[in-house]
Amino acid sequence: MPIAQNTLFKNQLNTRRSQRVVARICVQVRRRADGESAASENSHTLVVNAHGALIGLAMKVQPNEYLAIRNVYSGEEKHGRVVQVREDTANRNEVAVEFTEPAPRFWHIEFPPTDWKLIED
């Protein structure tokens, strides 16, 4: 990788709003389908942060679509917007979701990164 690209990549990593944590947390994801019916899927997170998560989903979603994410462990629910969808080879996509409001306590991480504590939710 050329030096300029490597520097750009490092700068992008440093601009994250909150540190990411690799965590497998059971979630239920719901979205409104066309009409009045809702689609839902039980899945798990791949990575979480105070602003959202990366979730493995078989459900087809699009960027800018709004989803409801329920933490199965706590029963809490937050809404978020799909910011990126990456196709995976195992019939699942990696879906990056950003909460409508930061929620560092939503994941119930026992030892959250210090930058999560600076965010009021």
Structural class: mainly beta
User: How do the strands line up in the largest sheet?
Assistant: 2-3-4-7-6-5
User: What percent strand?
Assistant: 35-45%
Strands, count: 7
Overall body shape? globular
Radius of gyration: 15 Å
C-alpha end-to-end distance: 39 Å
pLDDT average, as an integer? Answer: 84
CATH class: Mainly Beta
Annotation field: number of helices? 1
Low-confidence stretches: 5-13
Total separate domains: 1
Per CATH, the architecture is Beta Barrel
Instruction: Write down the secondary-structure element order.
Output: HEEEEEEE
Largest sheet: 6 strands, antiparallel, barrel
CATH topology, by name, is Thrombin, subunit H
CATH-wise, what's the superfamily? predicted glycosyltransferase like domains
What is the share of helical residues? Answer: under 10%
